[in-house]
Amino acid sequence: MPVVLTRLDLLPSLGQVKPLVVLLVVASGAIGVAIGATTPLTRMLSRPLQPQRRFMQDLLAYDFYVDRFYERTIVRLVGLFSTAVYWFDRYVVDGIVNGVGLASIMGGEALKYSISGRSQGYMLTILLGIGLLGAFLSWSKMGF
What we know:
This protein has helices at 2-7, 19-38, 43-46, 51-61, 66-112, 119-141. It is mainly α.
């Protein structure tokens, strides 16, 4: 990372660094580590009694409640959307596919009993089927 920061000219040069500032930053870090290491943390000190401090502690401890907000907004919306898509697929799309399958089976059963042995009857049935299919397709292209 220091190499990347140096190549992007984001780090100060050695002439710009003040030794007193470096010493103060290192000393403040060392003092903070020393205080944290020597201060005993009892159960009494772990939770503040003042509501404002407790609120701030919880806010920072739970990362501003981002995960709860994400759960209650994005996750819930995606769940509702997936439930709606599942219902549409299950009842509408599958219903149409099953209806076409049932219609073809019923049509085949009806044609089975119309066996006359004459090719004119077969041709009439085929032409009626093609005509109905063409009418349906052209009617659906018109936007009705």
